[in-house]
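no rush on this but wanted to send it before i forget. theres a chain ive been looking at and ive put its sequence and its fold in token form underneath. please have a look and point out which stretches look like helix strand or loop to you. thanks a lot i owe you, the record is right below:
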Amino acid sequence: MRFLNYGSVNIDLVFTVDHIVKGGETLQSSSLTKSAGGKGANQSAALAKAGAEVFHAGKVGSDGDFLLEMLADYGVDTSFIRHYEGATGQALIQLDRHKQNAILLYGGGNTEITKEEIDETLKSFGKGDMLVLQNEIVHTGYLIDEAKKRGLSLCMNLVPFDRTLFSLPLSKLDLLVVNEIEGAALASLGEDAPFSEILESLVKAYPDTQILLTVGKQGCWYGFEDERIHEGIYDTKVVDTTAAGDTFIGYYLASLARGLGVRDALKYASKAAGLAVSRPGAMASIPLAGEVFA
């Protein structure tokens, strides 16, 4: 299976702070790091590090050339990433003393993708391939419709979550990935709804779609038709949670591409995410296949 990840490419600016800044407050940061990021790019890096064949499509400015070099070094095919006369997407990340983060995004090139570019890219993919999506670029609904016409499988991670997602043809997805907050919102439930209720609501609402619900320290749940599978976390010391979810998704999909079943794929994805949070950074924290599948 080949993966086409049509997703965000960002420059991450990470400020290490005592606590997440409040309205009207000014904080001194103890450190600042500049690195590669974007949920799309992170997931592509995770897929490649896990040994999958992955192509990333998107758009960057000239300030993003180092991101393409980094992705290529990890094994990602970047030939479908286009350049334009503007800024690459940006993420301003606050990382507090408890290793929790708050992220402010600027779309940049992620919002300048055109339908013509999408059509040109999709010509190279078809049945047997999977399109991987997040909610950080434009024309996501168009991508879902056009990819489905061409016979691609579809996976979408509903991050960041906003009301525009309700207008997307989510029922066409083969795999839908959400955390407990996103899942509750999509199911029109309160944030304190039990995980089991969230999962059952989504399985009922999207009967043709596999549901993957991640719930932090409580692990993850899989639901499709009558099958329900739970996997706990791979417990490690938390240093930085920035790319944990992206690592989980990349390794889950790569595990399926290796021919593993859902239960084993969840196990390896959880292990990979656990190793990622034990290290600083986004892409750099994602473990290699030999560390996870050993």
The mean pLDDT is 95. DSSP finds nine helices and 13 strands in the chain.
